[in-house]
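User: Hey, quick favor. My workstation is busy. Could you predict this chain's structure for me?
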Amino acid sequence: MPDSTAAEKPPTVARGKPVVPVNARRIVVVVWLAYSVAVLGISILPSEAVPKFLMFGWDKIANAIAYLASLLADDTVYTYPIIGWDKIAHASAFLGLGALTVPVMLHRKQWITLTVGYGLAIAVLSEWLQSYAPGRTPSTADVAADLIGTGTAVIVSILWLRLFGRAFASHGKQTRA
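Assistant: No problem, here it is.
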């Protein structure tokens, strides 16, 4: 008598990692590539053409952090941002890029190196492209902020895999009664 649950079994596990359905993997790769192109596209826009919604108050957040830090430090009140909105925007954009790069690279042995390397390559390329955009200047501080965002995504991914990786790996295993 054939097993009626055979068609309902979850995907098997290869090398301790769950198998991602082909269609889902294709969607992730397409979104990853589109996001990469968007990051590069925004980086080559002239400074006055950057959409205002992308700068939705990072300067106010940075000023609030500077003010709160000055309250803890001494009597001097600082009104300039410790970190400019653009560095926070860079780190946030590359946090997203890193978060999308991890599932694309996760099946490879050196996924951490590949993810950080991809983030570095996109960061350097975007800064190089900025040298040709009117009103934009390349900055090594931007590359550093980009790497902080990518590194944060990798660290969160490592923690996620340590916390929930066993649950994903055991998802395809069947117990015998």
